[in-house]
Structure formats: structure tokens, C-alpha cells
């Protein structure tokens, strides 16, 4: 019974070994039932090994790469960073490493593969009345937040600015501030009042004098005294 177990165990072991020997060791690749040494990163296979010779490896041609030991007869083409995908070159392709792409300015990455960005989109715009609470990074969008209280931002500020205090500058507020716009100031009220009132007083005076003169002219006309009328006009 024990002997049988041993035989089964050994059989399994041999079977297993046999299965394993179908595969090549880690540093070799299989080609036509034969194991050949792999080529180092940056190279590809020029000629497979034979019974007498080892693998012949050749460097990857320009704009191609292999980044792992391989039994490939051709290298992979280098990735091109596509501006239409919001990408720009971050690290150039070498024989042993693919291009690394990053997001364009004002873009952030939303898809990544093997440490290289494959798709980036533009930062969100904050609305007027909001400020950029947290500036976007290579992998995160802008974070917008509302202005509160007596402050404003047009959507591109990194903080809400306080409204201009017209009164404190001795000016009149001609337009109150909103969360998206500053208050607008005009001439101080006193100066406006002085100019307005003096204009009004002058106009009033001219009107009153004119009315008086015409009244006088009429009365004089009625009494048929034209000579005195002229003298009155000269006096005025
Ligand atoms: C920001 O303001 C908008 C409109 O003024 C409002 O709809 C929204 O709920 C506010 N957001 C927050 C987080 O308070
Ligand atoms: C907001 O104001 C800044 C500076 O005043 C200006 O450069 C920018 O173009 C404005 N942005 C918008 C969206 O109006």
C-alpha cells in the first residue's frame, strides 16, 4: 500500500517534471520546440538560436522599443503623444522604454497606462460668482466654490475679493457689487449736489429774470411807452 503511494507520487513528480520541461526557463523563449535565450530590453531577435549558436540580438531601430527581455522579431513602435487627446511629450522614447505622455497645460489626466497618460481633458471653468478653491493638477480638476458675503470673483480668481468700499474712499456707490462683480463708485455726493444745485439755481434765476422782463415789456407796450422800454432793456 505504502509502496503504491510512493509509485504514484514518483509518477506524478515525473509527469509534472515532464510537463514543466515543455516550457522554456524564464530567461528563454520557445521557438520550434527549442528554447532560445531571450534578448535584453532595447533589442529584438535577429536570428533564433540553433543547436550550435545562441540567439542573435539586434538593437531596436529608431522610434521602436522593447522594455522587457524578449523573443520578439520586431520591436514595438513608440507611442506618439496626441494633442487631440490633451497630451504632450513628457519623456522621449528610448530603445528600452516607451514614450511617456503627460497632460497639456491646463489639462488633467483621466486615463493612465504604465505610468503614461493616454487621455487628458481641460480643467473646468469656474462660473462668475465662484473662485478656484483648489487649482487643478496633472491628475485633478479645478475645485470651484461660491463667493460669500461682500466679495466677488469673475470665475478665474483664486480667492473672492472684497467689494470696493466707495464710501470709505469718499465716493458714491453708483452700482452695488455682486458675487461676480465689484461695486462701482462715482463722484462724491457733495460735489454732485453742489454742481447740480448751482446749475438749477442759475437756470431758475435766468427764468425768473426773463419772465420779469417780458412782463415789464408787456406792461410798457400796453402803456405805449416804447422809449422807456429800450432804456429798461439797456439797464438790464
Ligand atoms: C453656489 O451658488 C449656486 C448659484 O448661486 C447654487 O445653485 C449652488 O447651490 C451653490 N453651491 C454651493 C455649494 O453652495
Ligand atoms: C477675470 O478678471 C481677470 C483680471 O481682472 C481677467 O484677466 C480675466 O480674463 C477675467 N476672466 C473672465 C472669465 O472674465
TrEMBL record:
Q: Which cysteines are joined by disulfide bonds?
A: 60-75
Tell me if Ribonucleoprotein is a UniProt keyword of this record.
no
What Gene3D superfamilies does the record tag this protein with?
Tumor Necrosis Factor Receptor, subunit A, domain 2
**TM helices/strands, residue ranges:** 191-214
PROSITE patterns membership: TNFR_NGFR_1, TNFR_NGFR_2
Topology of this chain in the membrane? Single-pass type I membrane protein
Signal peptide range in chain numbering: 1-22
Q: Where in the cell is it found?
A: Membrane
Assigned keywords, A-Z: Disulfide bond, Glycoprotein, Host-virus interaction, Membrane, Phosphoprotein, Receptor, Repeat, Signal, Transmembrane, Transmembrane helix
Asked if the keyword Membrane belongs to this entry, the reply reads: yes
Q: Where are the TNFR-Cys repeats?
A: 59-101
| Major site of localization recorded for this protein | membrane
> Per the database record, which ranges form the TNFR-Cys domain?
59-101
Task: Name one cellular component (GO) term.
Answer: external side of plasma membrane
Q: Which GO terms describe its biological process?
A: defense response to Gram-negative bacterium; defense response to Gram-positive bacterium; negative regulation of alpha-beta T cell proliferation; positive regulation of cytokine production involved in immune response; positive regulation of T cell migration
Name of the protein in question: Tumor necrosis factor receptor superfamily member 14-like isoform X1
| Gene encoding the protein | LOC113076427
Amino acid at each position: 500500500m505504502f509502496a503504491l503511494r510512493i509509485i504514484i507520487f514518483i509518477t506524478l513528480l515525473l509527469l509534472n517534471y515532464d510537463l514543466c520541461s515543455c516550457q522554456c526557463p524564464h530567461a528563454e523563449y520557445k521557438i520550434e520546440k527549442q528554447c532560445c535565450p531571450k534578448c535584453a530590453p532595447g533589442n529584438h531577435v535577429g536570428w533564433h538560436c540553433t543547436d550550435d549558436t545562441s540567439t542573435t540580438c539586434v538593437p531596436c531601430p529608431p522610434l521602436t522599443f522593447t522594455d522587457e527581455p524578449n523573443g520578439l522579431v520586431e520591436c514595438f513602435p513608440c507611442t506618439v503623444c496626441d494633442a487631440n487627446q490633451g497630451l504632450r511629450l513628457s519623456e522621449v522614447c528610448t530603445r528600452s522604454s516607451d514614450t511617456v505622455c503627460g497632460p497639456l497645460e491646463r489639462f488633467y489626466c483621466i486615463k493612465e497606462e504604465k505610468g503614461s497618460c493616454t487621455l487628458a481633458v481641460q480643467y473646468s471653468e469656474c462660473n462668475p460668482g465662484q473662485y478656484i478653491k483648489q487649482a487643478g493638477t496633472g491628475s485633478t480638476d479645478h475645485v470651484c466654490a461660491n463667493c460669500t458675503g461682500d466679495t466677488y470673483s469673475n470665475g478665474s480668481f483664486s480667492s473672492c475679493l472684497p467689494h470696493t468700499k466707495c464710501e470709505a474712499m469718499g465716493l458714491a456707490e453708483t452700482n452695488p457689487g455682486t458675487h461676480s462683480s465689484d461695486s462701482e463708485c462715482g463722484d462724491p455726493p457733495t460735489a454732485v449736489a453742489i454742481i447740480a444745485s448751482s446749475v438749477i439755481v442759475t437756470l431758475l434765476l435766468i427764468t425768473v429774470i426773463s419772465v420779469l422782463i417780458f412782463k415789464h415789456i408787456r406792461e410798457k407796450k400796453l402803456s405805449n411807452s416804447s422809449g422807456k422800454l429800450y432804456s429798461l432793456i439797456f439797464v438790464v
